[in-house]
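REQUEST FORM: STRUCTURE PREDICTION
Request ID: SP-0412
Submitted by: Lab K.M.
Chain count: 1
Length (residues): 107
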Amino acid sequence: MYNHDESLRVSSDANLLCSVCIPVYNEEDCLPIFLENLLGALASYQKTKCIDFEIIAVDDGSSDGSLEILKHYSDRNNIFKVFAFEQNTGHQAAILCGLNHAEGLLL
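STATUS: Completed
RESULT:
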């Protein structure tokens, strides 16, 4: 499990930045497990490589607690960016939103 006390670094000029874009729609049940696994994998990878990460999560009009979960993780991890659509527009639009806000050279 990812240890939130060992937060991921925000990109420095010396490291490449990789943007991870995540479309989310009514994923309340599996989202915390997914995010914990993702954060753990990124932190592990970051220890051995000169690469930093940002996570861009786009809630596509979820009607469950997905957006609140994303906001919770965003409050605890400075590498998160969260965007939300008021209504469901499809995963393609959510991915496009994430890509439009990505700052990394790697996606």
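NOTES: Helices lie at 31-48, 66-76, 91-101.
Reviewed by: T.R.
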